[in-house]
Amino acid sequence: MMELKTEPVLINMGPQHPSTHGVFRMRVTFDGEVIVDMEPVVGYLHRGIEKLAEERTYTQVIPLTDRLDYVASMTNNHAYVLAVEKLAGITVPERAEYLRVIMDEMMRISSHLMAVGFLLNDMGAFFTPLMYMFREREKLLDLFEMVCGQRLTYNYMRIGGLSHDIPPEFLPALERFVQEMPHFIDEYDQLLAENEILLARTKGVGVLSRELAINASASGPVLRASGVSWDIRKADPYSVYDRFKFQVPIGTAGDIYDRYWVRIQEMRHSVRILEQAIKGLPSGEVMAKVPPLLRPPQGEAYAHIESPRGELGFYVVSDNSIAPYRLHIRAPTFINLTTLRDLVIGWKLADAVAVFGSIDIVLGEVDR
Amino acid sequence: MTTALSGQEVSRQIGERFPDAVLQSDEAAVVLRGESLLEVAQFLKTTPGLEFDYLASISGVDYLDYLEVVYHLTSMKNNHSLVLKVRCWDRDKPSLPSVVSLWRGADFQEREVYDLVGIAFSGHPNLKRILLWEGFEGHPLRRDYL
Amino acid sequence: MEMMSVYSSLELDRAEGLAIDELIARSQQPIPDPDRWLEEERRPNVLITSVDAVLNWGRRSSVWPVNFGLACCAFEMIATAVSRFDIARFGMELFRASPRQADLMIVSGTLTWKMAPQLKRIYEQMPEPKWVLAMGVCAISGGTFAGSYSVVPGVNRIVPVDVYVPGCPPRPEALLYGIGMLHQKIAKDSIAVKR
Predict the structure, then answer these.
(1) How many Cβ atoms sit within 10 Å of the Cβ of residue C150?
(2) Mutate which of B116, B128, B133 to test chain C, going by most C C-beta atoms within 10 A?
(3) Burial A125-152 (b: 16+ CB within 10 A, else e)
(4) For B136, which residue in chain C has the nearest alpha carbon?
(5) In terms of Cα–Cα distance, which of B107, B87, B82 is closest to B32?
């Protein structure tokens, strides 16, 4: 029998690509159709946010943080103001805390809708699930526009509270949304969960083991789908999360299907948190007494929250001036990407696209 | 609630095992000597009662006299956290040992600190620039980069 | 972690880094916007007015954009393309993945120097006639991030731009208005003038 001599081929899945969720590049080495090596190249959206933050006052950094994970801007704002409030020792009024939780959970639903929609888009269901998910997302964006006037990058939270109170028509509209949403989630689940193509492409593919997930500092749905019960809202509660009753879905197998399932279940639990928060919303003011040009005492603080993609942390160092001395952003998707190479080696190209979609990255956060 | 461990308490435990590894310690953080980082990290990861199995974040800061790298460690089992700091006084060719062999999550974060602050990590399998392009001169997050 | 391929990744990185440095050196001045459509002397010949009218109607009624979403503005571009703000009523719902099949490049998001050679390459791969729409303040002038060490201060340093749509991010209605202006610009075109 003649032995065919083959050579590995280096193919570039370049920064401009329909299924890379932004400007992400993978240099993949193939042996036939099977992947033997993969190198992710990032940095195509590196805008120098950490350096720019050193030249702006503490409040002027908030619009910069919006543009990090631009799909879930409220949670970025929340993490940053938590870090500065921890540094300066400011207490936030209760109404502001409840409103922050409401905004965070709405953001979580919106972000997971987008994540699931794009995962299915990458797997070939070109645009139909995405259109369905965006139908709900547009309702949420309308609610956000009612509150702060913007659809995508909100700039709503301030150090010490929120920038202004919610208008009176917001709560009835939110209650209507919360009543309808479980039916829509059931509709998506029913359409997608038993689909043969989805099951064949996602069950058993891209399995991330428990030990590797903890060792590689993965966080968010990627970590929980591998069976690790670690959610910062339960383990290290911030804001008023310790007053709400909710569960955190934990997967078992760590494959793509489990990551998809964890996101759908998290949407359901977010709706429940929203119901409890609306019922318990106290009255009062929404902003603490903070000087206009804040000068925190010298020191440093690290605050982390559970953003829809994982543990988002801000490390702020201050030297008692009006601008931060150093701002470092612990980006969850940047660190989740460490596992990508191990997950795709040995699989085919189509699986690589599906695995990559299930990790759900946003390039603004990876590259900062 | 994740308890932040007191730096003095942990440095006492480290000091029993590695006598001259700790430079200073206070309520918030433990400052280590650069050469002993790897063995102290191994000790912190494996000792029962400490068991820091999750590396939350690595940041590089440029204080003008020295360059500092801050490690935030978390233990999922015991639900406590710790802050470790290591300093480099050499600004031309700073170098520290890499902790990738203990925590894989340090891979990309150390490359980012090398890229933006300029500290080289010895023992890292693939130390090259990650966010900026190869051939970029300088390290932007240093205070003397304009 | 050894690479099994023919090239080492460090060589590839160095070659690309050189290309980026050369592009930075060449792009110190903005490229002037195409303003042929303002010229008064190019009166089209009587013979070709109906040909022009039909061609321009055909070209502007089905402009196909190429997938070039960079950052946050990409999400408003996608929101324009889905059912609420339906871009399909203008014939533009087909976002082509390959630049060889596209007419319009909507640059949505911040352009960094590391990405700039790829932008130039995609622009050069598009066949004539082609147009560029700069969406969002980051594409127009660097936006919130102007002054950073790695952000291109405006896409018009690299490619000539036809329509600018300001906003951070611009609402889908604003993007549709910008596309309407592009259609008006295409309607004034003529085959008698060499591009």
Answers:
(1) 23
(2) B133
(3) bebebbebbbebbbbbbebbeebbebbb
(4) C17
(5) B87
Judge: B104–A215 Cβ closer than 8 Å, yes or no: yes
The radius of gyration of chain A from alpha carbons, rounded to an integer in Å, stands at 21
Q: How far apart are CA A278 and CA A67, in angstroms?
A: 28
Going C96 to C102 to C107 to C111, the CA torsion angle's sign is positive
Whole-number Å distance between alpha carbons of C155 and A115:
29
Gap between the Cα atoms of B1 and A242, Å rounded: 10
Tokens encoding B85: 């700091």
Residues above pLDDT 70, as percent of chain A = 99
Q: Taking the CA of residue A66 as centre, how many other CA atoms within 13 Å lie in the half-sphere pointing to its CB? A: 21
DSSP string, A245-257: -------SS-SHH
From B128, B134, B140, residue closest to C149, measured CB to CB:
B140
Contact state of C1 with B126 under an 8 Å Cβ cutoff: yes
Q: How far apart are CA A356 and CA A35, in angstroms?
A: 14
Our CA-based measurement puts residue C172 at a distance from the nearest CA of chain B, in whole angstroms, of 31
Is residue B133 a contact partner of residue C17, using CB atoms and an 8 Å limit? yes
Residues 6+ apart with CB under 8 A from A19: A121, A122, A353, A356, A357
Over the stretch C53-108, which tens digit does the pLDDT of each residue have? 888 888 888 889 887 888 888 889 888 888 888 888 888 888 888 889 888 999 99
- Cα–Cα distance for residue pair A162/A88, rounded to 1 Å: 17
Q: What is the pTM of this model?
A: 0.91
Q: In terms of CA atoms, which chain A residue is nearest residue C148?
A: A48
Residues of C in contact with A23 (CB under 8 A): 70, 115
**How far apart (Å, rounded) are the C-alpha atoms in residues A118 and A112?**
10
Give DSSP secondary structure letters for A55-76: GS-TTTHHHHHHTTSTTSHHHH
Length of chain B: 146
Virtual torsion, Cα A53, A15, A134, A274, nearest 10 deg = -40
* CA-closest candidate to residue A272, choices A249, A294, A250: A249
- Do A62 and A324 meet the contact criterion of CB atoms below 8 Å apart? no
Tell me the two tokens of residue B57: 């974040």
Query: Residue A313's closest CA among C181, B2, C49, B23?
Result: B2
The alpha carbon of residue B70 is apart from the nearest alpha carbon of chain A, in Å, by: 10
Residue with tokens 């630049």: C99
Residue ranges of the alpha helices (H) in chain A? 49-52, 61-66, 73-88, 94-122, 128-148, 170-192, 196-202, 210-215, 221-225, 232-235, 256-279, 332-336, 340-344, 349-359, 363-367
List pLDDT tens digits, range B95-136. Answer: 888 988 888 888 889 999 998 888 888 888 888 888 888 888
Q: Quickly tell me which residue has 């360059």 as its tokens.
A: B67
Backbone angles phi, psi at A249, to 5 degrees: -70, 135
CB contact under 8 A, A18 and C97: yes
Residues of C within an 8 Å Cβ radius of A = 3-7, 9, 12, 67-72, 74-76, 78-79, 82-84, 95, 97, 109-110, 112, 114-115, 118, 122, 144-145, 147-151, 168-169, 171
Distance CA B140, CA C148 (A): 10
Residues of B in contact with A304 (CB under 8 A): 56
Omega of the bond leading into C129 within 30 degrees of 0 (cis): yes
Residues of chain C with pLDDT under 70: 1-8, 36-47, 190-195
DSSP A135: H
